[in-house]
Amino acid sequence: MRPDLDTLVQLMPFASTLGIRLEEATAEQAVAVLDHRPELCTAGGVMHGGALMSLADSLGAVVTFLGLPEGATTATITSTTQMFRPAAGSVRAVATLVHRGRTAVTVQTDLYDGDERLVSRTTQVQAVKAPRESA
Fold first, then answer.
1. pLDDT tens across 13-43, in order?
2. Contact 93, 110 (CB under 8 A)
3. Please, what is the end-to-end C-alpha distance for the chain in angstroms?
4. Can you tell me the distance from the alpha carbon of 106 to that of 91, in angstroms, rounded to the nearest whole number?
5. Beta-strand runs (E) in the chain
6. How many Cβ atoms are within 10 Å of 18's Cβ, its own excluded?
7. Contact yes or no for 47/91 (Cβ under 8 A)
8. What are the two backbone dihedrals, phi and then psi, of residue 62, each rounded to the nearest 5 degrees?
9. Is the pTM of this model over 0.90?
10. Whole-number Å distance between alpha carbons of 69 and 7
11. Mapping DSSP to helix (H, G, I), strand (E, B) and coil, where does residue 102 land?
12. Nearest CA to 63 among 117, 8, 111?
């Protein structure tokens, strides 16, 4: 069953506020776009690094979330980003599952500019918190 992409974004209010648009999402890979807007920029109309890292973190969380056991939750434990070039326009993000373990999930997210050049790469580890047992 294909998840409702708009609903996935709405589950993350900050991602929704940023304007992240999911194009596809599975437990193995997700693709999203963040449109260029002045309020997401720093000097010279360049997308702010925090906006780019927020896109990567949010998309990695989607991949993690879609593979969780029923009732489990997740949160980012670590996130490392390398920036390669400024993005002066909209960016496309591709998050790919690296490893899914019982207690942690590793996802790599690459961001691309309009010319399909690599803007940044983020590797994050997400904790998997087991569902609470009912009394």
1. 899 999 999 999 999 999 999 999 999 999 8
2. yes
3. 32
4. 22
5. 21-25, 29-34, 73-83, 91-100, 104-112, 118-129
6. 19
7. yes
8. -65, -50
9. yes
10. 19
11. coil
12. 8
